[in-house]
Design a protein that fits this description.
By secondary structure, this protein is mainly α. It has helices spanning about 5-60, 65-80, 85-105, 110-115, 115-150, 155-160, 175-180. It has one domain (about 5-175): LemA-like domain (de novo design (two linked rop proteins), Up-down Bundle), CATH 1.20.1440.20. It has 7 helices and no strands. α1 packs antiparallel against α2, α1 packs antiparallel against α5 (about 115-150) and α2 runs antiparallel to α3.
Length: about 190
């Protein structure tokens, strides 16, 4: 066999492998973008529920102004950060989730509000949306993991570096309650 022919075959095999890896990286990046879009849709659904929920609650909880303002301010911060990176968006969404959780907890003190069918429907819808956010977050983080492995692993990292594929950022919701250490002193 001629050495020139062997070199051509090896070069073609390397080029074919490079195309396969490149296409895998492109597919991974597209899946990450699709996953982020799914999260964004669910977060917008939740944000759109809040004004109507607050209107329902205001009539019953007029003197809980601080809690209502916290939810309103957190929603405004989230609304203004739609182009933020996943870490910042997660931090702001966590603040909103904490404010909503506090609102729901305080609502337990108002029997008339707890019995209000509109409020109960909002609670159920909010619970469903929160579940959808968690599903979307798991899908997104799974696609991020797959892309990041491809970007970091040899030899696909050579193609990733050559074509400027970067690692994607995971999306984590930060809840203040999750960070608090429970007091177990007796």
């Amino acid at each position: 066999m001629d050495i020139g022919l062997i070199m051509v075959v090896v070069a073609l095999a390397a080029a074919f492998y490079g195309v396969l890896v490149y296409n895998k990286l492109v597919a991974g990046r597209q899946k990450v973008e699709e996953g982020w879009s799914g999260i964004d849709v669910q977060l917008k659904r939740r944000a759109n529920l809040i004004p109507n929920m607050l209107e329902t609650v205001k009539g019953y909880m007029g003197h809980e102004r601080e809690t209502l303002e916290a939810v309103t301010n957190a929603r405004a911060a989230v609304h203004g950060a739609t182009k933020a990176d996943p870490a910042e968006r997660g931090r702001l969404e966590g603040l909103l989730s904490g404010a909503l959780g506090k609102l729901i907890a305080i609502a337990e003190d108002y029997p008339d509000l707890k019995a209000n069918t509109t409020f109960l429907e909002f609670q159920d819808t909010l619970r469903t949306v929160e579940d959808e956010i968690q599903l979307a977050r798991r899908y997104y983080n799974g696609t991020v993991r797959i892309l990041n492995i491809a970007v970091e692993s040899f030899p696909s990292n050579l193609i990733a570096n050559m074509f400027s594929f970067d690692q994607a950022e995971y999306f984590e919701l930060e809840y203040e309650a999750d960070r608090a250490v429970p007091d177990v002193s007796f």
